[in-house]
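Student: Send me a single protein entry containing the residue sequence and its fold in token form, directly below this note:

Tutor:
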Amino acid sequence: MKNLSAKQKAPLISAMLEEYYPETPVPLDHKDPYTLLIAVLLSAQCTDERVNKITPALFAMADSPSEMIKHTVEEIKAIIRPCGLSPAKSKAIFNLSHILLDKHEGVVPQSFEELEELPGVGHKTASVVMAQAFGVPAFPVDTHIHRLAHRWALSTGKNVAKTEKDLKRLFPEELWNKLHLQIIFFGREYCPARGHDPLKCPICSKYGRRSLMPK
């Protein structure tokens, strides 16, 4: 089974993930595109669990661009400090809120290009917002998905951009939005970065790289 090509393995892995995770709730708590955008921005180098502990206080203070700009960067930073990178993230939240009001009538834009022009918003963040807020096909690849794609020999990408291209080639577009969450959920439960036993992992044991296996 391990000699299958990436193209042959992709539908088999997809079917396994669908069996394990038929439902894929969005991990970050939010109520609209703006609060999702802020939550995803905060999740950089921070766990979703921690973000979900921080955002209730932040959104109680301000849950829209017009409310957010009434507060200072320091006030924002004081709340989001536990997420890490708070100096940069607080400035980004404040500045992007201004830009949304000045250029987009306070509404989160529904295009990759306009999202990626916002402070603190890279391609991965824009992809999450497009997929989860607007239902536009996207395949956000973070370091976790990048790691699993390599373990499962679905990509030889040295960076997340190349891995994203490889995964988009392998899987049908209509699966992307759900599949990226399924991979994240699977990784957390069965295929973690540390303490990973490929023989006990349902996917690595069947389709993982030979180099993963004990000699």
Observations:
- The chain has two domains: 6-24+139-212, 33-134.
- The mean pLDDT is 93.
- The domain at 33-134 is CATH 1.10.340.30 (Endonuclease III; domain 1).
- Residues 143 and 160 are 7 Å apart (CA to CA).
